[in-house]
Design a protein that fits this description.
Shape: globular
Strand content: under 5%
Number of helices: 9
Number of strands: 0
Helix content: 55-70%
């Protein structure tokens, strides 16, 4: 289904389709939550809280979540998957699965109180000023890999983000041609070395800010 180098990519984001309607649970329960220390549970907890906040912000409870809201939710899986300096699809997928498992318990508790702890744990998730690197290759690689991550994350959602996915695909096609020589100069002709550079680029891009907002900058610059 995916190119060879995507074997370690995120395969699914089961919570995010559910976020369209399943987070209509009580948010004022008696239980006070603490942010877990375990990395996967910590990211998953913040992702669920972000999904719950996004659902409350939509007036029509049956309406799909805006693209930007989905971007904020998937960002936690991305950040957890890049904590080691290279993107790990296995870790990001584990966060996604854990979000589904934790969803009900969190949304029945005082999940709003998690916001300060999540902001402290993941400052990139609340960045408001987004700037791409000055280096052309660093920006091109980061935008290319982030576009691919979002395409994978958004495909199969309850709401059809076809227009946005189409825009990301178009950008990737353009960037793929732009990065060939620079990537070869940096990593050589070895495919594994090039894949490592791509995973490192996505780890850096995760720190630039919310993925969909970053992609707006990428499209402005390279689209």
């Amino acid at each position: 289904m995916y190119p060879k180098r995507l074997e370690t990519r995120v395969k699914s984001f089961p919570l995010f389709a559910a976020a369209g309607g399943a987070l209509l649970l009580g948010s004022c329960g008696p239980k006070t939550l603490a942010l877990p220390e375990q990395p996967i549970d910590r990211a998953a907890t913040c992702g669920v809280a972000a999904a719950a906040a996004a659902r409350l912000a939509v007036t029509d409870v049956k309406a799909p979540l805006p693209l930007a809201a989905h971007g904020r939710i998937v960002h936690y899986a991305l950040l957890a998957g890049t904590e080691g300096g290279e993107f790990s699809g296995e870790t990001a997928s584990a966060v996604s699965r854990r979000m589904s498992a934790l969803q009900e318990g969190i949304t029945r508790s005082k999940w709003q109180a998690l916001a300060p702890a999540c902001e402290a744990a993941y400052p990139a998730a609340v960045k408001t000023e987004i700037a791409l690197p000055e280096s052309g290759l660093d920006a091109e690689l980061g935008c290319n890999e982030l576009a691919e991550f979002l395409i994978t994350a958004l495909e199969g959602q309850e709401h059809d983000y076809g227009n946005e996915i189409g825009g990301y695909r178009k950008l990737r096609l353009k960037l793929n041609d732009m990065i060939v020589s620079g990537l070869r100069a940096r990593a050589g002709s070895d495919l594994k070395a090039q894949q490592n550079e791509r995973r490192k680029a996505l780890a850096k891009a995760a720190q630039w800010g919310s993925p969909t907002a970053v992609m707006d900058r990428c499209i402005d610059r390279f689209g």
